[in-house]
């Protein structure tokens, strides 16, 4: 009785977890691709430069691997080709376990991206999760006869379910790539108050690790005794720290970050001019012209890029982009929006609109969002 219950618990837990993990990644395939690129860069420097060959295909691998997780999870739950699916899940999890252990032990990739931006896990938490999955899969491999002992659907029906799951999963990933994620878990999602997120939610507390006479001492306040040697400072409540720490916008005249939080600002984000979709600027320019001709309510367009000033100056003339431009870190722009270009609408620092370049809003939409 106990082996049967254990087998069915592992069956539901493993299947459900793989489906959830895959769907979270398909929700934001560009974010998953960015994480894969990070792994390729680490492996290219630690093992072989050959891993850089995969970097241009990160997006395709993102959708493929995420789809594979969902399909294997569904296939397990409907018990389609059970033995093949179980071994596939085992070896896939074994591979992920190696990745997470390597990341944790050598402190290489601080977030594995197992559940995208929805659930952040430390490297060791990710490794522990994968070890637990391996244990459950070993249980399933040893007790799979119990999964075959109760009623199940016909093979043709389960095969159809797996096929439909595959098509829907690929379609979900492609659609999310061509637009923004269905669910936005990032700090710059619609409704986020950016200035507020740049401040701690409570006073930060620290412990001070000091050394004296070869012994380590911990203090809640910095000791006045100068014979103690400072080793490190450890935050006690990091969850209360700023959720956004790297949002800065500047040009040759200085920092303009705080100015973006005044009034209504339409941010046109161009991460990399060499990869930007130039055709979309026809609609973007039409929107900017409409804002200029209809100044009530006033919306100030601002272009932000991570390309060099020389490259962007050439680019803006090519696409006839007439708006003041500033610079920001490339990683920040990737976090703010997945599209290149993309648009964010600020109202006194609060994100009230967010669009992929395939979904450029109308003038009326923008005015409605910032209207009093």
Automatic annotation (TrEMBL):
Pfam families: MauE. Keywords: Membrane, Transmembrane, Transmembrane helix. This is DoxX family protein. GO terms for cellular component: membrane. Residues 10-142 form the Methylamine utilisation protein MauE domain. It is found in: Membrane. InterPro entries: Methylamine_util_MauE. Signal peptide: none annotated. GO terms for biological process: methylamine metabolic process. It comes from Rufibacter immobilis. It is a multi-pass membrane protein. Its main location: membrane. The chain crosses the membrane at residues 9-26, 57-78, 85-105, 131-148, 160-178.
